[in-house]
Each structure stands twice: as structure tokens, then as C-alpha cells.
Amino acid sequence: MRTGWRALAALALALFAMQALGQDRAVVRMEFSNPGQTPARWTLVVYSDGSGHFRTERGRAAAESQEFADSPKPEAPDQNRDIRLSARFAQRVFETARNHRWFNEECESHMKVAFQGWKKLSYAGPEGKGSCEFNYSRDKEIERLGESLEAVAATVLEGARLEKLLLHDRLGLDKEMEYLMSASGDGEVQQLCAIRAILERVAEDPAVMERVRKRAKALLAKPEE
């Protein structure tokens, strides 16, 4: 009986330590909203070790417009998944947060520019917490961070589309993979490691067209920055 109580006490201490560690874990979060897009809202969470999470909420406006498109792009279902980013990318994210006082400053330019979607950057960790929100920022580093995190979100959504096409429309993978190759070259998508699992499935599936498999292998071979 005494041994059992010791085991329970050790387990309780371990759980308490894990909880305390989690509370001190630094995190950068970006919340995006634009009712004219699908998804209309999404949240991307990045931890300092490169782990993270991505969650979306679909909107109605863009989804309804798909009904009238000549060749509608396959829509990804709502996402709620863990992701893995490169350590170097995560380091840049947290360096930007540090350089900008953990986002305890004005980010919005208040300039008359086209609406691109509201981006809310926030930090929480041992150093404190802070947040700022913007459509467009004069600060190049903040604007670049917003663009990079949007590109990561685009990558995860592309991965979800590939999963859907692999299950229901393998021929549709050809056009989607062609786009992904182009987008990865110009920076519209970043951190392909976030969708490594589906790229590997496409590359190894003998039922997929050979050129699609080759493109998937080429994307897997690209170094992450």
C-alpha cells in the first residue's frame, strides 16, 4: 500500500512539473480575419522549438463565390491540427517579437491602403506578454512577419487540399502540385515541413501520376529556411 501511495505521489509531482513548464512555455500567435476569404478566420500558434498549431474557421462569402467560378479551387475543410516548423523559422519569429518589445507597440500604419485582412500578433511567455493588430504596418520587420505567417497558413491549407484530392480526385493533384511548385518558388507558401507527411504520401503512391510524384519529391528535397 505504501508503495502505491509513493507511485501516486510521484505521478502527481510529475504532472505538476509538466503543468508548470507549460505555463512558462513561450508562444507567438497570429490571428487573421478577413470575411471576404475562405477561411475567414484562422489562428497560427508557434512555439520556440518549432512546434505549433493551426486552426481555421470557414467564412461564407468566398465559399458562395466558388459556385460561380469557372474552375473552382478545391476548398480545404476546417483545420485544427498540430504542425512542425523549422527551428530557424521559429527563431526568426521570436527574434522579431523580442525586437518589438513582445508586440507592446503600435503596429498599424493607419495609411489608406487596400484591406488585406486584420492580423493580430501576440506573445506570451516568461518575459511577459503583449499584442498588436494591423492591416498594414510601416515597420518592415512586422509586415514581413505577418506575410511569412500568412505563407505558412497557406502551406497548411495546401496540404489539406492535397489530402482531399489524394482521397477523391488523384487527377486533380496535377494542377494543385503545379501551383504548389510555383508558390514555393515565389514565397507564397513557406515551411513545407508543415505538410511533409502528405507530400511523402503523394510521392510514394503508385496510383498518382509520375510527374506529380516527382514534384512532391522535389518539394521534399527543398531546404527549409
Summarize the structure in words.
The protein is of the alpha+beta class. It has one domain. Helices cover about 45% and strands about 20% of the residues. The chain contains 7 helices and 6 strands; from the N terminus they run αβββαβαββαααα. It has helices at about 1-25, 60-65, 85-100, 140-170, 175-185, 195-205, 210-220; strands spanning about 25-35, 40-45, 50-55, 80-85, 120-125, 130-135. A 6-stranded antiparallel sheet has the order 4-3-2-1-5-6, covered by helices on one side. Strand 5 and strand 6 (about 130-135) form a beta hairpin. Helix 4 packs antiparallel against helix 5 (about 175-185), helix 5 (about 175-185) runs parallel beside helix 7 and helix 6 (about 195-205) runs antiparallel to helix 7 (about 210-220). The chain is globular. The protein starts with a helix and ends with a helix. Mean pLDDT is about 90; it is low at about 5-25.
How many distinct domains? 1
**Termini distance?**
55 Å
Q: Could you give the order of strands across the largest sheet?
A: 4-3-2-1-5-6
Roughly how many Å is the radius of gyration?
A: 20 Å
Average residue-wise pLDDT: 89
Please bin the fraction of helical residues.
40-55%
Shape: globular
Number of helices: 7
Largest sheet: number of strands, sense, barrel closure? 6 strands, antiparallel
Taken as a percent bin, the fraction of beta residues is 15-25%
DSSP strand count = 6
**Class inferred from helices and paired strands:** alpha+beta
Stretches with pLDDT under 50, minimum 5 residues? 7-23
